Amino acid sequence: MHKVGKIDIEKYKCVTDDITTDEVIITDEQIQHINENHSGSYEEIKPYLAVALAEPDYILEDKGHCNTGLILKEIKKDDKRFQIVLRLHTSADEENRKNSVISAWKISSSRWNNYLRNKKILYKSE
Q1: I need a labelling partner for 40 at 20 to 30 A (CA). Which of 22, 31, 46, 80 fits?
Q2: Residue range 34-49: average pLDDT?
Q3: Distance from C-alpha of 95 to C-alpha of 87, rounded to nearest angstrom
Q4: CA distances from 101 to 27, 78, 98 (A)
Q5: What is the pTM of this model?
């Protein structure tokens, strides 16, 4: 288990009101999943994870998973766009768990725009 950073619970209440911690972790299994399914993206995304979670550009609804948000973050200076799947820890979950990065990958500007057109936007940065 690796600590990734912290979230602003108030920002993420658009996903669920029941968030028990601001801490975010990623497991070795999830890192392996990212590398296997997204062409070794973890090392490219890793330096931006904390800021992406703390200051998301968008939080989108994840219809397939409860208490989970799809985080979009654009790093303009490096011309990179990321999607992060974040599972939020609620009072119904095991006590010793934290908010957890489930997956993450780099996306194109066309995919970014497609998400904004076709997915429900729960949060947009000002």
Answers
A1: 22
A2: 87
A3: 15
A4: 8, 22, 10
A5: 0.92
Tell me phi and psi for residue 90, to 5 degrees. -120, 175
**Torsion angle, alpha carbons of 68, 126, 119, 85, to 10:** -30
Give residue 36's identity as a one-letter amino acid code.
Answer: E
CA distance 83 to 77: 17
The CA-CA-CA angle for residues 76, 5, 85, to 5°, reads 70
58 contacts: CB under 8 Å, gap ≥ 6: 71, 72, 115, 116, 121, 123, 124, 125
Q: What is the pLDDT of residues 108-123, one digit of tens each?
A: 999 999 999 999 999 9
Strand pairing of 80-87 and 121-124?
Answer: unpaired
CB 69 within 8 A of CB 62: yes
Q: Which domain holds residue 108?
A: 2-124
